[in-house]
Amino acid sequence: MSLSDCIRNDVVTASPEGSVEDIAQLMDLRNVGSVIITRNERPVGIVTDRDLVIRVTARDKDPKFTSISDIMTRDPLVIREEDSISDVMSCVREMKVRRLPVVDENECLVGIVSLDDVVSELVEEMNAVNAVISSRCQVRCRNIFFVL
User: Fold this and answer.
1) In angstroms, rounded to a whole number, what is the distance separating the alpha carbons of residues 106 and 116?
2) What three-state secondary structure class fits 131?
3) What is the chain's mean pLDDT, rounded?
4) Which of 112, 81, 75, 111 minimizes the C-alpha distance to 95?
5) Which comes out higher in pLDDT, residue 140 or 97?
6) Residue 144, helix vs strand vs coil
7) Which of 84, 82, 115, 117 is nearest to 99 (CA)?
8) 85-95 vs 115-147: helix axis angle to the nearest 10?
9) Burial call 66-105: b when 16+ CB within 10 Å, e when fewer
10) How far is CA 43 from CA 26, 75, 76, 108, in A?
11) SS3 label, residue 61
12) What end-to-end distance do the CA atoms of the chain give, in Å?
């Protein structure tokens, strides 16, 4: 399994100039928990549903008049297309993030990878391994049974 199996290319993006209300509505419309903030196709920030709660609601800010750039996490940690799943997991552990924008060699956004996507792929891989082991065990057991 490679990192490309975990990358989602349908990334929801927004400009840093919009309002928090705009981004909250976008997240609701697209049913996502994060939006990558871009400028010239490069990630300059990220806003998560948690950011909306902590940086807007908990601080009693008006979403209509609060700018995305005021609440976004600036300069998000990014991962490159050629990086490994191990690299992603290291970033997730060390930086305590769940979502990483994926960039190409020009630093342009090409996708997003989330901890949930990686875990889902790993579970599928483990299920495939389990199926192989189970089928081999059944074949061996049948052969032993017939040999006896």
Assistant:
1) 26
2) helix
3) 88
4) 75
5) 97
6) helix
7) 115
8) 130
9) bebeebbeeebebbeeebebeebeebbeeeebbbbbbbee
10) 17, 7, 7, 7
11) coil
12) 40
The residue behind tokens 């901890």 is: 115
Task: Tell me how far the alpha carbon of residue 107 is from its chain's centroid.
Answer: 17
For residue 75, give every residue at least 6 positions away whose Cβ sits within 8 Å of its Cβ, in sequence order, or none: 44, 45
- The residue ranges of DSSP E strands in the chain, in sequence order, are 13-14, 34-39, 42-48, 73-74, 79-80, 99-103, 109-114
Cα(76)–Cα(42) distance, integer angstroms? 11
Kindly report, residue by residue over 4-63, the tens digit of the pLDDT: 888 999 999 999 999 999 999 999 999 999 999 999 999 999 999 999 999 999 999 999
The amino acid present at 16, given as its one-letter code, is: P
Q: Where are the domains of the chain?
A: 10-114
Average pLDDT over residues 116-130: 81
Q: How many CB atoms lie within 10 A of CB 16?
A: 17
Please, are residues 39 and 107 in contact by the beta-carbon 8 Å criterion?
no
Architecture per CATH, domain 10-114, reads as Roll (3.10)
